[in-house]
Amino acid sequence: MPKLNKVIYLVEDDAAIADVYKTGLEAIGKFNVEVLVSCFETRKRIEKIVAGEIEKPDLVLLDLLLPECNGMQLLRELRSKEETKDIPLIILTNYGGDELKKMGEKLDIADYIIKTETTPTKLAGIVKNRLK
Fold first, then answer.
1. 44-78 per-residue burial string, b: 16 or more CB within 10 A, e: under 16
2. Is the pLDDT assigned to residue 96 strictly greater than 90?
3. Of 128, 120, 103, 36, whose CA–CA distance to 112 is shortest?
């Protein structure tokens, strides 16, 4: 049975930012958004996907600065596993820079978004375009 709404993992440790984006993505984009607040929690979810216990999300929004690790480490882990390597991934951060963008491109990210420049409405539009 196909999923009615697309599932998005929002990996974000800042509760206020996570709430704003989750609310916007659910209201505007009609997505099911699951917030993961740490590397530990995200790794546990990846393990469940690899073990076949849960379905993989349709897209991951990934912050770069997280407790216990950085988002690039999680990105590498997602890309290294057969079950998660093809999940569309958008980096969502407040840090720009050509070096980070180049690293992300090497790891096949769908997009690189600066939080301070992106409203929930704009983010919902970007996500909808990526999931067409």
1. ebbeebeeeeeebbbbbbbbbebeeeebeebbeeb
2. no
3. 103
When pLDDT is cut at 50, 70 and 90, the band that residue 1 belongs to is very low
Report how far residue 5's alpha carbon sits from residue 130's, in angstroms, rounded to the nearest whole number: 14
The count of C-alpha atoms lying within 13 angstroms of the C-alpha of 129, restricted to the half-sphere facing its C-beta, is 9
Residue 42 · residue 36 · CB < 8 Å:
yes
Q: What is the residue whose two structure tokens read 């480490």?
A: 73
- In CATH terms, 7-130 corresponds, of 3.40.228.10, 3.40.50.2300, 1.10.860.10, 3.50.50.60, to 3.40.50.2300
Task: Return the structure tokens found at 39.
Answer: 């590397």
Q: H or E stretch including 35?
A: strand 32-36
